[in-house]
Amino acid sequence: MVEDRHVELELPSLDTLAARLEYLFDKIRPSPEELSDSDEAGRRYTNKEIADKINAASGATGVTISAAYIGELRRGVANDPRMSHVRALAAAFGVNSGYFVDEAAARRVQDQIGLLNDLRRMDVKRVALRQVLTDSGLSATDTQLIEQMVARLRAVAGSAGPEGSSDASDDRR
What we know:
The protein is mostly helical. Helix content is 66%, strand content 0%. It is built from 10 helices and no strands. The chain has helices spanning 2-9, 17-27, 47-56, 58-61, 67-75, 83-93, 103-121, 124-135, 140-160, 163-171. α3 packs across α5 (67-75), α3 crosses α6 (83-93) and α8 (124-135) packs antiparallel against α9.
């Protein structure tokens, strides 16, 4: 069972510009400030929204792009964009432009996006614990087991008394 979960944590292959761009569309979501009241939180960016972000910065960058061209890049129909478009796409998603051209940079960005998404989904303390355990050289399986033990201990402590008592244990560290 643990083996299956480890496989899910593997990063997808990003061997084409289209795959890298699609990964950003899949993983990076509009901020609450970018959403209107009628928008669903957590939804994906549209090609038009990314084009609008790039075009809004065109006064400073000199770069404009169409939503149709972004769609062509995503589908792999267009696969050799100008470097100015690569930089503008990276800026629109808030990633380093090396993400699109360098395998090591792409993996670093994937790791960072994964960590940010974990932070959004989980308690920050759990993410910090995972990072400390990983940095100390524990395997993914060992890290997962320790996380499960901590979660179980928190659940037992929570059922034994009021929620405030578990906060007091945090102060003892």
